[in-house]
Amino acid sequence: MSADIKKVVLAYSGGLDTSVILRWLQDTYNCEVVTFTADLGQGEEVEPARAKAEMMGIKEIFIEDLREEFVRDYVFPMFRANALYEGTYLLGTSIARPLIAKRQIEIAAEVGADAVSHGATGKGNDQVRFELGYYGLNPDIKIIAPWREWDLGSRTKLIEYANKHQIPVPSDKQGEPPYSADANLLHISCEGKALEDPWVEAPEDVYTRSVSPEAAPDTPTVIEIDFKHGDPVAINGEKMSPATLLTALNKYGGDNGIGRKDIVENRFVGMKSRGIYETPGGTILLEARRGMESITMDRGAAHLKDEMMPRYAEMVYNGFWFAPEREMMQAAIDAASEPVTGTVRMKLYKGGVAVTGRKSPNSLYDEAMVTFEEDTVYDQRDAEGFIKLNALRLRIGKRSRN
């Protein structure tokens, strides 16, 4: 614990945890606290955080709508990699942390703060993601992680501290919450408490962004998504900004029961955790991108990108967004995405997503080449030499073993 902290920028939601942290920082470090609240499309008002911070004596309050920057500069670049952590998780929480960290460091420089602070616990991944981001952008910044310092190790102790210091506690926080939720425009995740037993099926009320597949419409929904250089730019011919487009895809997906995942993942800190994730728009987008890539991306480039993907996804999951290797891989991925332009038709039905058509001015698909009818562009006799050359090492190896 450093005693020379004069001003700290706190990532502040206005909830119980960060409100307790705000007061704890004031009491423990006798420092000035600057609050930063980001609107990343979490689906709830962020302005109430201003009134709560003012009530607690905060003079410098930053509340910012970062939805467009979040989708444009973080979500879309990640989706160009078709990133899935451990083959299933679309990295909704992971990708939000670098942007929050970036703005904290920028605000710290603007207001002359010598430290930053976050509300992540000492058991999870977010502490790593935030702090790798901080250090990657300002190697000399001081970091205060209250969950690793204080003795408020339970929800009960937090509420007791809040009541003692007259910090308002929402009525739904007075009891034990059934699970912990994290949300942004890409997804919502729920973990802990009632979800900790991986054998017990999650109750329906955990899902807030999608209807159940069984309750979804009995008629399929068909949409067309236009892409330009690897990113979606329009739905059904209507051009949209990145955040507006993802919001629209979330509505299509949620209405059709799309994007639910029950996952047991390996945290970077070493333990396994079970989470319920809803990523309706992202699930549609992943399938649509792969459909667009299938006719526009060279086979070698596509296969190499698929080989890179697990490593890229792991870097995002572990918090290495600002690492040079992620930036190096991003440059290659972005270059490979240049020809990924065109339109994909999608059918959405009771939790399922299917590509039913794709077209592009950059299409590498040659109907004359692949037709089963007679053609004049492909000499089938050429395949004999191709096969024999590829079989040469197999034949030599087999003879040597006889």
Distinctive features:
Rossmann fold, alpha/beta, 3 domains, 5-stranded parallel sheet, 402 residues, 5-stranded antiparallel sheet, 19% strand
Short précis:
This protein has helices at residues 16-29, 48-55, 67-80, 97-111, 126-137, 155-164, 171-174, 242-255, 280-296, 299-318, 324-337, 367-370, 382-401; strands spanning 7-11, 32-39, 61-65, 115-117, 142-144, 180-183, 188-191, 221-228, 231-235, 238-239, 260-266, 272-278, 342-349, 352-359.
Structural topology:
Layout: E1 7-11, H1 16-29, E2 32-39, H2 48-55, E3 61-65, H3 67-80, H4 97-111, E4 115-117, H5 126-137, E5 142-144, H6 155-164, H7 171-174, E6 180-183, E7 188-191, E8 221-228, E9 231-235, E10 238-239, H8 242-255, E11 260-266, E12 272-278, H9 280-296, H10 299-318, H11 324-337, E13 342-349, E14 352-359, H12 367-370, H13 382-401
Parallel strand pairs: 1-2, 1-4, 2-3, 4-5
Antiparallel strand pairs: 6-7, 7-12, 8-9, 8-13, 9-10, 11-12, 13-14
Sequence stretches where pLDDT stays below 50 over 5 or more residues? none
How would you name the CATH homologous superfamily of the largest domain? Answer: Argininosuccinate synthetase, chain A, domain 2
* Domains (count): 3
Whole-angstrom Rg: 25 Å
Describe what this molecule looks like in 3D:
It contains 13 helices and 14 strands. It is of the alpha/beta class and 402 residues long. The protein has three domains: 141 residues, Rossmann fold, CATH 3.40.50.620; 178 residues, Argininosuccinate synthetase, chain A, domain 2, CATH 3.90.1260; 32 residues, no CATH class. A five-stranded parallel sheet has the order 3-2-1-4-5, with helices on both faces. Helix 3 crosses helix 8 and helix 8 crosses helix 9. The longest helix is centred in the C-terminal third of the chain and has 20 residues. The radius of gyration is 25 Å and the shape is elongated. The termini are far apart.
